[in-house]
Amino acid sequence: MLPSHKITMLGTGLIGLFYTMTLHGQRSRDRVRRVYSRSEDRAKAFAEKWDIPRWSTDLAEAVNDPETDVVVVGLPNHLHEQAVRLAAEAGKAILCTKPLGRTAAEAKRILDLVESTGVFAGYLEDLVYTPKTLKALQAIENGAIGDVLWARSRETHSGPHSDWFWDLDQAGGGAIVDLGCHCIEIIRNFIGKDIRPVEVMCWADTLVHPIDAEDNGIGLIRFANGAIGQFEVSWSFRGGMDLRDEVAGTEGTIWLNHFLRTGFEMFTSGGGGYVAEKADQETGWLFPVGDEVSELGYTDMFTDMFEAIDAGREPMETFYDGYVVNAIIDACYRSAQSKQWEPVELDVWRGATAVDQIKGFKQDYDGHQLVKRERMPDGTLKLILKNKETGEITQRFVEEG
Amino acid sequence: MLPSHKITMLGTGLIGLFYTMTLHGQRSRDRVRRVYSRSEDRAKAFAEKWDIPRWSTDLAEAVNDPETDVVVVGLPNHLHEQAVRLAAEAGKAILCTKPLGRTAAEAKRILDLVESTGVFAGYLEDLVYTPKTLKALQAIENGAIGDVLWARSRETHSGPHSDWFWDLDQAGGGAIVDLGCHCIEIIRNFIGKDIRPVEVMCWADTLVHPIDAEDNGIGLIRFANGAIGQFEVSWSFRGGMDLRDEVAGTEGTIWLNHFLRTGFEMFTSGGGGYVAEKADQETGWLFPVGDEVSELGYTDMFTDMFEAIDAGREPMETFYDGYVVNAIIDACYRSAQSKQWEPVELDVWRGATAVDQIKGFKQDYDGHQLVKRERMPDGTLKLILKNKETGEITQRFVEEG
Amino acid sequence: MLPSHKITMLGTGLIGLFYTMTLHGQRSRDRVRRVYSRSEDRAKAFAEKWDIPRWSTDLAEAVNDPETDVVVVGLPNHLHEQAVRLAAEAGKAILCTKPLGRTAAEAKRILDLVESTGVFAGYLEDLVYTPKTLKALQAIENGAIGDVLWARSRETHSGPHSDWFWDLDQAGGGAIVDLGCHCIEIIRNFIGKDIRPVEVMCWADTLVHPIDAEDNGIGLIRFANGAIGQFEVSWSFRGGMDLRDEVAGTEGTIWLNHFLRTGFEMFTSGGGGYVAEKADQETGWLFPVGDEVSELGYTDMFTDMFEAIDAGREPMETFYDGYVVNAIIDACYRSAQSKQWEPVELDVWRGATAVDQIKGFKQDYDGHQLVKRERMPDGTLKLILKNKETGEITQRFVEEG
Amino acid sequence: MLPSHKITMLGTGLIGLFYTMTLHGQRSRDRVRRVYSRSEDRAKAFAEKWDIPRWSTDLAEAVNDPETDVVVVGLPNHLHEQAVRLAAEAGKAILCTKPLGRTAAEAKRILDLVESTGVFAGYLEDLVYTPKTLKALQAIENGAIGDVLWARSRETHSGPHSDWFWDLDQAGGGAIVDLGCHCIEIIRNFIGKDIRPVEVMCWADTLVHPIDAEDNGIGLIRFANGAIGQFEVSWSFRGGMDLRDEVAGTEGTIWLNHFLRTGFEMFTSGGGGYVAEKADQETGWLFPVGDEVSELGYTDMFTDMFEAIDAGREPMETFYDGYVVNAIIDACYRSAQSKQWEPVELDVWRGATAVDQIKGFKQDYDGHQLVKRERMPDGTLKLILKNKETGEITQRFVEEG
């Protein structure tokens, strides 16, 4: 028969809700069988709503539920390490929400926990699993846009739903930890997870909210082959949730819009009910998303995770990826302080160790290096040429292309 | 345990492929266990590719597979009736692709077959199940756009993949039967399936291809409450597959774009592999769709169908709906000939029998009927008023809104 | 020196305002020197605002201003004939707003007035002069989309600003006369002004407002070469002003959006001032237009008109075009009553008298007619073929394209 | 009579062409009366094409043409200083293309030249004059998006047309000098030209072309009030010319797209002629722009310049602005070398000297600082609150909004 899984869900916040909606969605054969919350009320209500037979307010009890074989960690950041330790000790497969840790050091301990016990471990970075992203990654692998030169990932909204996100100690940071972890892993996927991130430059500031953590941040990540990643995060964006990725390659361009412009446009003078996560208004022009859990990647993410468990292979996103993301975030915070580029410090690098610089536009013409070719309005072809010896740059019009 | 289903799939063309991709997709617990094709080669190849244990070139054998409890009809239009008869006699649940029949008479016989035997019957009109459409229908039910006045559904591409579509006899028509059946049912869902379609006006012509059937068609459908449906279909559209719906209500507007502008934009100088169903080019700006089977509604459609079977309820789309669609198409073809509005002839009408005309903008102001109110650039409010006795229309500027 | 013009502006409503903004805009060398309004207050205020030296409440006095050489008619529809007569008698160049008349008969009298006196006469159909439309027409002339099969023009908003529009007698109709005249002339330009409009089918209804005229209408126009025009007009659209054109050709497609999606998107929680003509809201996502008078075609329209006067040539839009539009509108109203296709009655037809039907996809392959060719995901080429003798349709896979 | 101007045009490259198209466009009353090119052939051809009575290959002769009162500098960067000196000595109004100089030092000398002689001087930064930008700036001034927090300006294409751009010495830099100067001044306009740019962080690299200058660059500019500007420039972008601005404010958001998505979409299988500046393809989906010289701001720019001359006022963009832009670019190049934030060095600062930091979200609730308020799906209001003394962050659900 088709293999299926019984799950312990840790956490009943927004992310626990999205995960359970996905796991119980469509014709899925997997089911949450125990749920944990720090609050008895929330645990009970959640179990009832989602038809889950057992609930706990005791973390160890939930993890050690004898029926379940998979533990999903959907807890605040400062509880990830404890939860993973319990699940690893129980020998269960572990799926942990993003970010893996609050710091690279914490993430490394979490990684070591699962690797030393040998349990399956998947990193729940949903946004690299959106159907658009998966298809875009495939197109890039097929060569559709040539070598990737630059990837921008932007995730901004008006701020998270739960109190703990806003607390620097529990969360480990602000918008960069919360949203930047998505962007960084998206960028790594587009540029190539095998390409080492070398150094970062980051700006962070608290522009709008009365909090200690940053509510806005921008970062650049330089990779070993010369490619550049660029992330933009904000908790003060107005107009909904802006999730966009842009990728520039030597042969093409990809633009993905995951939320505000996906082909669903509605003008209303009021009354349409719940529109979408973090929509900033209820009347006027709205831009809902069809199936949120699919568009945000949750569906394909859990499919990959469970198929990986069943097949005894690694999932697309591992705890090691989570560790790399934390290491980049650490470098970002250092850079925001030092105001200069900071190296990405990785105790372990499992990707390629020698990569070529991106191969650009290398063509010769009549003994010159070709700088550019362009078709003019009158049909002639204009060439910009560089003399290989003198370096002088000239232009020439030729009849045929 | 979670209920699951074993399926006989009739047909291995594009639609059988999409259906099977969906049924075996993500973490689904349902599986195709026997496949039928008229060609042994295609049957074998399909079974192998999709890990289906048994195949047939004999329709009755496939339908009567002892393990399967559901028969999915994905055959050319002229074979629907025969397939449904066999499946109804076998007492199995039947899911039939669109259109139900080639004519209303054929559809009515098919409807009678399943109703007389009492088997479960679902009409596989996927495009009313797209996540965007489902959410839009919910918003309309919530009152987000007031009363629906007009719904436009447009489905155009460069023509179908298989030979039988182009044959008037096997298909029962051209672009209107092939694509209009989608549009008509989308329109019915937006305007309200309870509202009777009264009459239609239709233009059809063969503008581009050397065929007997129409390759272009436009139709208007007037409903009992005054609302208007408008469909546009074409087999000669250039630029990909244009699937758009627009809905105008007294309080709002909805625009859905299912294919060419869904937030995925890619420029390529070549090499990205298979882009999307019916894309018209392989280089330049392309507009792929993330997860086609989800965006086209197949996922939610089969979920509804199997949940309906499990719960002993009707699915969202029934064979009766398929019959109504065929009756509207019949009226369209009559109108295209007669060049006048033609009544929609329904032997059985199961919706509302007395509906009010759409309630428009009915407000009074200072003893007049209010025709329009508008805020002017200088902040004053301009009222267009109608004298209730004389009918005279005047305008008035007032200070406050 | 550069030739310039002195203008009498008849009318101070929204259209007079837009015209004067354009005429006095940028570095224009033409100027309005006298303005007429039925109301002394409005005439004075308008003259002061736009630095116009003279104003009148007497139509003849305004037309006969000794300094002006051009009369612009921006009056309600029922006053066009009188104004044109006065201007023609004065021997001045006449530019008349749309529609030319309330009926084809009235338009014909207006046409005869200017042709018998020989004065210059331009029809101010601004929407065929939008920069996008002009460039699209040029692309079509260059063959970019092959033969035009279908043109859709849609103009909908929440209803006009002034009282007289809502009065059937003064306006001569409702949304079809007000907005359909734009759509019809846009369609004619895309399909070819030389191609005779043969017959129309039209639906019209009063769905929302307490008025005698239609507030919604849809029409189909069949042209002599088989091409189809489709217009959609409404005074009950919510969400702003929807001005879109779509054109389908044998080799391509054109989509124009003149207002709601032109690359300017703004989310505001309030306070941004006047947004755009007929915007339906002041907060949330708004879609303003950059330079309205340019985007709506006024700038290029007046440039063409004055250049035509200076060069002694016809403008792009003539009173004859206005007459054809009125003849099509007349047929629309007849069709809305008769519920069947109605012929377009033209006393005079100045276009082509013998046109070929659109040439479609006419290719042969191996003794068959080629119905369709399509590249499959596996790289093979699939051909749909028609046997020239039997008419049988088959498919064939070939290796090379 | 209406004042008009006679112009000497220096340069016949693409920018001289666009300037002349604009100056002679629509019903303009100004005219180019002498044109200068280093090449006699190009000077003659240009004069003939644009009906310009006189041409020169001698710069001084062209500047000193006795009929002209305005000199437009459309020359390569390294010739700006010489041309401005000649024009200033001739006492003529000077309009200089972007960038003003190759370095801030050069720009400062150019600024001093015109200020010491007192001639009118306008900086031809067209992209702050696009109709969309002008309207967006007005909306920001009206308070539509609150305080501006961040402005992104992106200008990328496949590289410039003429040889000298690619030569580091003549151009003074690569993509940052060529395109970044636009972005920087756009950013300054959105954030406020009165707010001092304090420091910059910049990445630059030569990824694709065989040249000495950078072909890609990204920069961050921190302003005195905490706002952040972000520019992205590239000479290796594929897919056309990507000109987009995004602005985030405390109360709203603005997105401008000047080129690739402006409401004009065309699919063609070939043959539509010249599409747009720097379009990267000739078939498939194309995104032309209606009136390029209007959309790119040239029309409104020259209108402002000439109106400023006529009114004896400063234009919107002055040589001082050009100098500030060069100072920011200088800091960018230093930062790209030093890999840290570099101060913007301005010998003269004419804006505000004491500005407040951006005022964010400062509200109290029940003795706490309000961090966030959000409407939940069930209609309750969720507040995130910060204890003013302990700094602890908690959440609370309240019934009413």
H/E element order of chain A:
EHEHEHEHEHEHEHHEEEEEEEHHHEEEEE
Sheet of most strands of chain A: 7 strands, mixed
Question: Largest protein interface?
Answer: A-D, 66 and 66 residues
End-to-end span of chain A in angstroms?
60 Å
- Regions with little confidence, pLDDT below 50 for 5+ residues of chain A: none
Q: Assign a percent range to the helix content of chain A.
A: 25-40%
The protein's oligomeric status is homotetramer
Q: Structural class from helices and strands of chain A?
A: alpha/beta
Range of strand content of chain A: 25-35%
By DSSP (H or I, 4+ residues per run), the number of helices of chain A equals 11
Order of strands, widest sheet of chain A: 12-11-7-10-9-8-15
**Based on DSSP secondary structure assignment, what is the total number of beta strands of chain A?**
19
- Radius of gyration of chain A, CA atoms, in whole angstroms: 24 Å
Shape of chain A: globular
Instruction: Look at the structure and give the mean pLDDT of chain A.
Output: 94
